[in-house]
Amino acid sequence: MSASNTTSTHPAAFLLMGIPGLEHLHIWISIPFCSAYTLALLGNCTLLLIIQAEAALHEPMYLFLAMLATIDLVLSSTTLPKMLAIFWFRDREINFFACLVQMFFLHSFSIIESAVLLAMAFDRYVAICKPLHYTTVLTGSLITKIGMAAVARAVTLMTPLPFLLRGFHYCRGPVIAHCYCEHMAVVRLACGDTRFNNIYGIAVAMLIGVLDLFFIILSYIFILQTVLQLSSQEARYKAFGTCVSHIGAILAFYTPAVISSFMHRMARHAAPHVHILLANIYLLFPPMINPIIYGVKTKQIRDRVLGVFLRKDV
């Protein structure tokens, strides 16, 4: 397929470079990437199967965890197969519309994951600060509405981007200096006035990241106040212990994002592959580590997994 199309203002396809400057190491880089993707698939599928099969896990905390596992599967599967195709087979071409679809799913599900982490913070707040109201507040109906609101917010914010990008004339060539179709990487190839895309992208990132993180931190301030008021050290340890997995998931999601954002603004002269590797860590690390965090720290899930292996040994 030709990488350009003279009858249209946009190319028929883009060419993804992979990791610029490290093309000679793509095969070696693919090893940790493939390993991380395999762990993400196995871990998140295992979580979903355990939560679905175990009636005792059909509680709000685990339903939110199932949402998180589903999101992580979509996020990693949106980008990793194409990345590995670039690394292994030098299959760099991606159809223009497939690129827009990849970008839409990538950014939408990142926004949904942020919303689910916020919902999980609310779950912990109610469980610790309002335990007598837990079952009456976090009903199945409310959880469904929270999930639908998270999806609606993401779709509403991300739907304009593909249409805006489709209207640009791409005069800077079809080569995207990235492993996947990230919004600003595509915008850099467009001619004309792209200020709205730049401002909109930054505004959405700031709105979602700052607002969600603010309410997560606020929830934990209330949780910490309640925990410190408990009479015994054992009760304080037990109450806060139920939050450890969630805090780990928050750090896994937001830390790479903050570091990547900091590098883009404070280390603009760093080699391009540094920024791209950080962006890939942001996509790869949470889906890989979340099942491990919850598998190790959540007794019900840990016991179920150990039970499967023990039965096999018998």
From TrEMBL:
List each copy of the G-protein coupled receptors family 1 profile domain by range. 43-294
Q: Which GO terms describe its cellular component?
A: plasma membrane
Q: Which residues form the signal peptide?
A: none
Ordered alphabetically, the record's keywords are: Cell membrane, G-protein coupled receptor, Membrane, Olfaction, Receptor, Sensory transduction, Transducer, Transmembrane, Transmembrane helix
Domain of life from the UniProt record? Eukaryota
Topological category with respect to the lipid bilayer: Multi-pass membrane protein
Q: Which residues cross the membrane?
A: 25-50, 62-88, 94-122, 134-155, 199-223, 235-254, 274-296
PROSITE patterns recorded for this chain? G_PROTEIN_RECEP_F1_1 (PS00237), G_PROTEIN_RECEP_F1_2 (PS50262)
* InterPro entries linked to this entry: GPCR_Rhodpsn (IPR000276), GPCR_Rhodpsn_7TM (IPR017452), Olfact_rcpt (IPR000725), OR51/52/56-like (IPR050402)
Instruction: Give this protein's Gene Ontology molecular function annotations.
Output: G protein-coupled receptor activity; olfactory receptor activity
User: Cellular location of this protein?
Assistant: Cell membrane; Membrane
User: What family, per the record?
Assistant: Belongs to the G-protein coupled receptor 1 family.
PANTHER family from the entry? OLFACTORY RECEPTOR 52K2, OLFACTORY RECEPTOR 56B1-RELATED
Functionally, this protein is described as follows:
Odorant receptor.
| Name assigned to this protein | Olfactory receptor
* Organism of origin: Sapajus apella
